[in-house]
Amino acid sequence: MLTDTASVGVLVVDDHAVVRxxxxxxxxxxxxxxxxxxxxxxxxxxxRLEALAxxxxxxxxxxxxxxxxxxxxxxxxxxxxxxRHPEVKVVILTSFGEIxxxxxxxxxxxxxxxxxxxxxAEVAEAIRAAVRDEVFLDAAVARRLAQQMRAPQSGLAVLxxxxxxxxxxxxEGRSNREIAAELVISERTARTHxxxxxxxxxxxxxxxxxxxxxxxxxxxxxx
Length: 223
Description:
By secondary structure, the chain is α/β, with parallel strands linked by helices. It contains ten helices and six strands. The chain folds into two domains: 8-147, 3-Layer(aba) Sandwich (Rossmann fold); 152-215, Arc Repressor Mutant, subunit A (Orthogonal Bundle). It is 50% helix and 13% strand. The longest helix is centred in the last third of the chain and has 15 residues, at 187-201. The chain is globular. InterPro entries: CheY-like_superfamily (IPR011006), NreC/VraR/RcsB-like_REC (IPR058245), Sig_transdc_resp-reg_C-effctor (IPR016032), Sig_transdc_resp-reg_receiver (IPR001789), Tscrpt_reg_LuxR_C (IPR000792), WalR-like (IPR039420).
């Protein structure tokens, strides 16, 4: 259970009402998570966020986002949320056959992903990880994505020793605060190292960094 907040607001986005209801049902039993709304496509999700912003109401801290939806799919919606509301984390709900779209969503700022057949405990942990600025990856999808990922031509050789240490900790799912504590540096310095290594490797998110670390053998996907 989270300790830094009373409740995490979550917006559930999926074009199938039965999926939304199912996710909402098992999130409703969690003391530290509150479903603040549902949306049937990416456009509706953006409209809900914009309406809250205009009213000055708190935005949900996490959006659980389907990928295959009409009007606006999850890839485009993720990019727009990252651009307009960077404080809102997007966790992708995906099926195993949507690997290419998962890649696109990660490039557009998704914080993690899990399969639609995940159990309540996994969904809850993905939400909590996103709030902690950590990465939650379904292990089976992570392996497939890591195999397909194109590593930079110079590999990890472009990184300093400290940046490699930071990358390994990022790949273990550590937040900037936890990296700072582990390496006895400030949180700001940890954040700078993460930003620098992402830039050197041509990556846009911590999630992509985890996949590269898996591909390069620094860590193994859980499960």
